[in-house]
Amino acid sequence: MVDTSPERAYISWWQARSDAWSRLEEASRQLAGTLPSGPPDGGLIEATSGLLGVLAPVERYWAFPGPEAHQRLRELFASASYGQFAGLVARITRALVTESYRADTGRTLADGDHDGAEPGEAAAGQAGPASPARPYFEVLVVETLTPPEEHALREEVHGWRRQSDHFVYDLVVVGSAEEAVIAARLNANLQACVIGRRFAAAATRMEPSLADFADGSIASDLAGQAPNERDQILARRLARLRPELDLYLLTEIDVEDIAAHASHHFRRVFQTHEGTLELHRSILAGVAARYRTPFFEALRHYSHQPGGVFHALPISHANSIVNSHWIGDMAGFYGLDVFMAETSATGGGLDSLLEPTGPLRQAQQLAAETFGARRTFFVTNGTSTANKIVAQALVAPGDIVLVDRNCHQSHHYGLMLAGAHVVYLDAYPLHEYSMYGGVPLREIKSRLLALRAAGKLDRVKLLMLTNCTFDGIVYDVERVMAECLAIKPDLVFLWDEAWFAFARFHPVYRPRTAMRAARTLAERLRSPEYRAAYAEHAAQLPAGDESLLSERLLPDPARARVRVYATQSTHKTLTSLRQASMIHVHDQDFAQKVEEGFHEAYMTHTSTSPNYQILASLDLGRRQAALEGYELVAKQVESAMRLREAIDNHPLLARYMHTLTTAELIPAEFRPSGLDRPLAGGLGSMARAWDTDEFVLDPSRISLYIGPTGIDGATFKREQLMDKFGIQINKTSRNTVLFMTNIGTTRSSVAYLIEALVKIVRDLEDGAAEMSPTQQAAHARAVLKQTSACAPLPDFSGFHPAFLDHRAAGSNGDHPTPEGDVRRAFFLSYDDTHCEYLLADDAAQRMEAGQPVVSATFVTPYPPGFPVLVPGQLFSPEILEFMRSLDTPEVHGYDPQAGYRVYTAKALEITQAGRD
Fold first, then answer.
1. Hey, which residues does 404 pair with through a beta bridge?
2. How far apart are CA 16 and CA 34, in angstroms?
3. Whose CA is closest to 590, among 561, 568, 559, 558?
4. How does pLDDT run across 147-195, given as a tens digit for each residue?
5. DSSP assignment of 582-612, as one string?
6. Nearest Cα to 853, choosing from 902, 889, 786, 816?
7. In what helix (H) or strand (E) does residue 905 lie, and over which residues does it extend?
8. Strand pairing report for 701-705 and 658-659
9. pLDDT for 318-341, tens place per residue?
10. Which SS3 state, helix, strand or coil, does residue 761 take?
């Protein structure tokens, strides 16, 4: 019997729809196979009807297979024409699974059998070479139409198609605003939307299976509104949901007046009765604008031009390879084009990364539009370099910077080079898993208020935070910035989004990205409603800094400046070559205060010989994100949720491992939604948590707790996943391994991972059955070690007074603050006479004797991968205990034979005397 139970759709119908069609194909094949031997079983007919019922409410939101084909299916099934029914289902399923329906064939599946061919196959049998398939997309039409009117519209649009068109599209027609929102959420093929004047506010019937994809307020928001205002409301809602969609308005009256006052979200306004040709051309032009890749196209054109190279780079145009007797296999492996595009030239249609004026400048402008930034800069040395560029551009020696102690090492080195005085912020600890979460807002506010009390707020320049963290903890970005600006109105923010570039392209993620939050905050500060709310808030604000820690603060709209930077490793979560990164800027004072310094910082850290392949890949990755980012991210998250479900519901795996939930990674005090497992609740549950909670969990990051296996995370990664199955992962902790889905994750790769985990656990069970009593006792100890609490994660212990600045403006030092001069501490160690080495026991003895022990280096164990000690930091018993508890052999800045490199007492005495 065919399994007809409906698939669970978490945030996307992608997998559920594909599986339902595959099940329908299996059922229809069984139905057709019963015909020679008599009538089919009633249960099979019921199962097939049930699958048609599952698909019926969702298929209307896709152009393929289309309403006519779907109606034809129902007619064939109702008439018991099971052979034809099975044939049509098979062609539809094959076309969906292979995506061959995207090929431009100009015919419909409802028109007969077509010799069993599916869309995209017909051209293969035609005389002459087949035309290359053009990119396909779909256009949403929001208008109440009768079936004949809808058919006529499709025929008219098909009639405008020309072979010279670069793209081909088909229509999805809905008659209400509610259905328009559902279509935008479900159908990732949509690239444009045409809004007419005649549409209903609410859908005629809301299917329960689509409740999570509906907008519960759109119908009420439209109630009683004039037609022109209804168009604007729907446009704003769609733009917030899918900002990449090109929106067009069709109107019958006052087109000139409406065009003057229409929402800026509309790309164009058209008069209904003037035909669809100009609208058709505009739709194609809108997609073509996002399809452009100025630098990639310039580089490809250059690579095809003949010429002579009397400059650097013998590899240019592959000259040093194709004539070689010994490295011809290099071209065979990489292909010739990559070398034909290698050049040192900045002319000839190309551009200079350091002073872009042509295609590179255009590519960066397109990237800024795609990622919602005011300015975007390409970086070819990775986000490590991007972080240093921003730090140097914004921070002058002596400026105070607040930064998460557990941030990437590039921040530590960048602040050291810039001469910043650093206040390290403590994230909440997860002792059981030996990892940290995010920095609570209360911690950030308390540091800012302490600096204000000390008279040092004028020196505070920058707040640096990582969003999302390595383990998937995501901040409420807008709230953090708003409350910080209430204390320090000109504070600058750097959000390290190295692992979060993809988040822009899903509506649930997007509000918690730096660029979107910056735009939202800037718009809110300008609104009259906010100014009134702020006046009321300021009048009721309690006195005393302690009370401000618990109060939700609002920034003064007359003083606050929105100054936000985001650094992204494009290559980590989107398509581009390794080390390809971007810097996104939304800084209201950039031109006035930063631009010159930013240019110098960019010149300092950027190679004069940037890799053109990396730059071209950034251009192409931007195009992909703009045109199919929504689809890819939705699939990425859906795959992650299916992986979680498969692991946690597997009876054998559940005995040895489970995926960590939101409740296990984020304490309840940071989750006012009260949802312990919002990801398992689907799109609606996830959205509620992301709207309210201080921290949320990125579902695409899956921390797998493996304590009951008795194997530590590093060993599990190396000996089990990599050596046995070739499965790559990045991060481990003492008793967890981190899996990440990305836009390249396939269903087959998810299945392979589950298969590997099952084999690992079966091997563990087989091994346990053959253990001797001695081995059993050893295994029990290993399990106890991985499942019991280890040494607590240490907080930042503080800088030695030699590297502190306790001078407080006008307060005679009554308010000491913790900022330390990391650059001074770092370069002091360059004189070997200032340093010595201490083993852990010797360091402990000195501390017991009351003598300070101060690190001369960054000490970073992997895992967990953050510096436990920085230059100038005091050792503490908690730090030594934590370091002793680690099993990892990889500790940067620590010599197992000599010990820790620390400062001598004399060096500290001289340094402190010099500061005093």
1. 425
2. 27
3. 561
4. 999 999 999 999 999 989 999 999 999 999 999 999 999 999 999 999 9
5. EEEEEETTIIIIIHHHHHHHHHHHS-SS--H
6. 902
7. helix 905-915
8. antiparallel
9. 889 988 999 989 999 999 899 888
10. helix
How many CB atoms lie under 10 A from the CB of residue 884? 12
The Cα-based distances of 307 to 304, 343, 354, 610 in angstroms read: 10, 11, 25, 21
Structure token digits, residue 536 = 């009321």
Check: CB of residue 567 under 8 Å from CB of residue 497. yes
For residue range 637-669, list pLDDT tens digits in order.
999 999 999 999 999 999 999 999 999 999 999
**Tokens matching residue 863:** 């895992």
Residue 460, both tokens: 């505070």
Q: Would you mind telling me the total number of residues written for the chain in this entry?
A: 916
Token duo for residue 71: 């109606």
**Angle, helix 42-59 to helix 67-78, in steps of 10 degrees:** 160
Which residues share a beta bridge with 862?
890
For the chain, first and last CA: distance in Å? 84
Side chain identity at residue 599, one-letter code: H
pLDDT tens by residue, 270-319: 988 777 899 999 999 999 999 999 999 999 998 888 877 777 788 888 88
pLDDT in tens, 207-216: 888 888 888 8
C-alpha span between 660 and 911 (Å, rounded): 47
For 95, the token pair is 């076309």
CB 701, CB 466: distance < 8 Å: no
Amino acid code (one letter) for 35? L
pLDDT in tens, 728-752: 998 888 899 999 999 999 999 999 9
Count of alpha carbons within 13 angstroms of residue 171, beta-carbon side: 22
The fraction of the chain above a pLDDT of 90, given in percent, is 72
3 state SS for 183-232: HHHHCCCEEEEEECCCCECCCCCCCHHHHHHCCCCHHHHHCCCCHHHHHH
**Residue 674: DSSP 8-state:** -
Q: Say what the pTM is.
A: 0.93
Work out the angle between the directed axes of helices 277-291 and 612-648 (0-180°, nearest 10): 100
The predicted-structure confidence for 93-150, as pLDDT tens digits, reads as follows 999 988 888 885 444 555 444 444 555 544 333 444 445 678 999 999 999 999 999 9
* Alpha helices (runs of H) in 348-476, residue ranges in sequence order: 359-371, 382-394, 409-418, 441-453
